[in-house]
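ugh ok fine here u go
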Amino acid sequence: MTTAAHRVQLVRDATFAHLDAAGGISGTRGTTPDGLFLRDARHLSRWQLTVDDTAPVALVPAATESDDTSSCVLTPRGTRDDPPAYTVFRRQTLTAGTLTEHLRLVSNRPEPVTARIDLTVDADFADLFELRADDRTYPKPGGRHERHTTADGLRFDYRRADWHSRTVLTCDPAPDAVRTTTEPTARTLTWDLGLDSHGEAELHLTVRAHPHGLPDRPPATPRPQRQRRPPAGDDLARACERGLDDVDLLTIPVTGIDGEEVHVPAAGIPWFLTLFGRDSLLTSYFLLPYRPETAAATLSALAAVQGQRHDAFSGEQPGRIVHETRHGELAHFRQVPYGRYYGTVDATPLFLVLLHAHHETTRDSSLAVRLESHARRAVDWMFTDGGLEKHGYLVYTPDPGGLVNQNWKDSAGAICFADGTQAQGPIAVSEVQGYAYDALLCTADLAQEIWQDAPYARRLREAAQRLRDRFAADFWMPDADFPALALDGTGRQADALASDAGHLLWSGILDTQRARRVGRRLLEPDFFSGWAIRTLAAGQRPYHPLSYHRGSAWPHDNALIALGLARYGLAEQVDLVTEGLVAAATRYGHRLPEVIAGYDRAATTGPVPYPHASSPQAWAAATPLALRTALEQV
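structure:
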């Protein structure tokens, strides 16, 4: 993928790289840092080529040949009367933890020439959390960087207490010289390559990342087998194909409940190439008709890290399903709470919904039997720490050290009143109550049919009905004829009109008449941009088309809404949502990004990109599959 700023992105096997137009890396920070990344760390922060002591000219800027390979054509600077003496054909390929580069130098002259090639290299081992932090730094007491010249390249080491990461560069041929630079940790390698008359020379470079916690040579893992794809032909089919390819790119190996290796969809690039509870669960749900094995892997992986104890720092609670897992230095030393962070209110009910859906799709009861104890602990969490018994709803309290909001709209300020004020906790968000209702009924079905525990099933069904009745009384706003976004800690309705209401159709917590009215309301112009349903209806005080959760439009949000619309037979509305999203996907090479701006379709020639969107992103990638399912169900 090449971005608007001509940043090339390569992805493969839980590894990604961001390169500039000449295939280089300069060590940028912020929203789109460049470098070679693995396990939440940057293993290559400088990779800058010069030819004949100057930056090369990109005759053909770097562009991807495939998701893991890019190429470009470079030359030394020249003039009309003195054109470049040689041309450099540069090709870069990414595999698991490894960036390989092939430089082919071709002489343009009849007489022999010598090409001077310099490559400045560095590895800062920066944690992703510090790279994206705009207003803070993280102390690293005792941290030390080392660099060593080897017979055929360089080795960079970073150590801090028990932490040790390495990056190793090997070169063929070996450099003629290695020298220091003005930057203490960087080194410049030099080659003087002789080229005969119109002759060629080659240089092969291999960078291998060795992150802390992985063996030096991790075993090769088989890629998941692709199964049942939609027929090619129309734009929706092409979006489904692209989506499945992106899910493949984002699939990572993790550990399952019995210590087995399983392959699960990570959330997205650049910040979220790791197991995410909510994201991985919904992605797996969207993929169920095509890849039920993905759901099985995700459920096993999440059961393996299900909460066991109370830990205020990470939000861990017994039975709670994890929000995200991290492997970086800052998580290792508990400088951020995200090593295993449990600050999510919805992953636990979604875990139960997916477990039931997997059984319904496959009619294979073995997974439900295997995870029975985990499912029961998840239900226990909903009633206890989740808040169903004390508050009557699943609730969360903003985490000052982690996430202020802990539903899918997890940015600060996202759960707001119509005047824009952020709700204060304990907060009961509307769509999560639908998930909880569905989870109770789904688990009751498993208890009745598979676990042979009729009394438990009856208790869960009775609790689900009570929740549905309470929800109808407490969340419905008669004047707006629409559900509130949330209840704050005092029980006051957060009255912003938000897309979360569409999830209530998916879960079935609304009665039929209200559900159908909500579904139609979501396709009115203030909600529906023509591309997708906005997170907040336009015209409200907090609405902003470039806000992450207060006016932008998210494909996965629309996918859940479309499935809900189909549940209530709203075929026209399903068609509108599908057509808008598919039209948007065609503008991105049939790849849906994480989020797009909320501007009206009539105002622009194409969807306006949200500036910080992840792409590829797992639940956006799986959205076309969910849309196809909705079309088939309506």
